[in-house]
Amino acid sequence: MESSYRVIKKHEVELDRHTIEVKEVNVKKIEVDSKKEDLNIYENEENKEEFLEAMSIKQRIIEEAETERKYILQKASEELEDLKKSAFEEGYNSGYEKGYIEGKERAKIESENIKLNAIKLLKNAQKESEDFLINFREEIIKLAATIAEKMANIAIDTSEENIMNIIHPILEEIENATNVIITVNPSKYEILKKNLPSLRERYKQINFNVLKDADIEINGCIIESGNKIIDAQFRNQIISIVNELINSGE
User: What are the Flagellar assembly protein FliH/Type III secretion system HrpE domain coordinates in residue numbering (predicted)?
Assistant: First the structure.
């Protein structure tokens, strides 16, 4: 009986562009001469035993080949899953890093835009406030003067002595005067007369005369000495300051 080996050739199993090599497996081929009749196969015990052994080897080789085939397919499937998982993770990490960088860059650009817009708004606000002050400078000064006058009158009205606090500084400036006329509003006339003895005691060289005039503002006075006239009315003083401020801005 003729016997030989046939070779299971090397094949490649391709899964998703990843190649897994299948090893060569030598399978013993048992050839039986078909020309011989079945009775000739068993001419003697030796041939019978050889035949049975060959059939046993053949079956074992087939089983081993099938086992290896299943192993190779299982291994290929596992490697394919690993490759898919690895590719997914690499893609995810790459995408995450790319997204983080892009997001950071966008945030930087947006932050810069917000900063530029804020600076622009501040400059516009500053320009508008400057224009407002220029356009309404006179009105603002007059308003401030009116407020100052009202506050001064309120302070003076709370105390009788305050009218005297207006008069004393003026008298200090004209201490060399010998004749002084003080004109006040009728509402303050009695207060001034009441304090006249103290004035004469303090300024002994001065001869005082007290007058009243309804045109004088309530908390103001006019002091005359020789050819000098001092207007101590708040309104007139504030108007003078206002005019100076307005003219200084021209």
Answer: 120-238
The pTM of the whole model exceeds 0.70: no
pLDDT at 1: 45
Domains along the sequence of the chain with CATH: 1-135 (no CATH), 137-248 (3.30.2320.30)
Which of 203, 208, 214, 141 shows the shortest CA–CA distance to 175? 203
Identity of residue 134: I
DSSP string, 130-157: HHHHHHTHHHHHHHHHHHHHHHHHHHHH
Q: What is the pLDDT of residues 147-180, one digit of tens each?
A: 555 555 555 555 566 778 888 888 888 878 889 9
Whole-angstrom Cα distance, residue 106 to residue 99? 10
Question: Among 143, 128, 125, 126, which residue's Cα sits nearest to residue 246?
Answer: 143
* Residue 199: other Cβ atoms inside 10 A: 19
Q: What 3-state class would DSSP assign to 111?
A: helix
Q: For residue 52, which phi and psi values (nearest 5 degrees)?
A: -60, -40
Whether the CB-CB separation of 224 and 181 falls below 8 Å is answered with yes
